[in-house]
Amino acid sequence: MTAPPWETVSFDCYGTLVDWETGIRDAFLRAAAADGVELDDGSIIAAYHEIEPQVQSEEYRPYREVLAATALGVARRLGWPLEPERAGFLAESLPDWPVFPDTRPALERLKSRFAIAILSNVDDDLLRGSISRIGVDFDWTITAERVRSYKPAPAHLRAALARAGGAARLLHAAQSYFHDIGPAVELGIPAVWVNRKAEGAPQQGGPLHTVADLTELVDWLEKLD
């Protein structure tokens, strides 16, 4: 069997490497409890999924501001009278968002054979906090702060193509079909869907491969050798 041609495997961070939903939910629950407000767990994430993309689709602003605006929008949706000066709780919590248990072992296996990179919708300093928690060194990163844009806009992926030397040398892996997989497929970038939620995929323009987690991704790559 022919060895895989890719020299770099890039990843989305939040949702793929880091369990952002647990981090966000817990941050909301703690901050609301300090105000004596009890929030419904499922409603937090549902509202967040709706509101954050709307905020990111507006004129570019730093991710800390995106998080604050999203926190205020979610709080309003859920009936929590959050004061604007306290909306920074979400950005402050980000470096403590938990890492999926398969992330570090899988990345350590990959690093012996590929360069690894992150393409993320965050500010540089916030990503550094998460990388420290992951505990693995990445060869390079591309953030929203650097490209002044948020996925699913293509700026991250275009910058990754330039850095990696073209689609033939880059494999992109991510959990979000909306933010990463669909845009990668549109640009002709080989993509692996890390389908942690066992979601249904669109019928057309699918990824090169689908896995349930990062362990399956590495197992698949090793079988290609």
TrEMBL record:
It holds the Pfam family Hydrolase. Transmembrane segments: none annotated. The keyword Hydrolase applies. Keywords: Hydrolase. One of its GO terms (molecular function) is hydrolase activity. InterPro entries: HAD-like_sf, HAD_sf, S-2-haloacid_dehalogenase. It comes from the Bacteria. This is HAD family hydrolase. It comes from Candidatus Kutchimonas denitrificans.
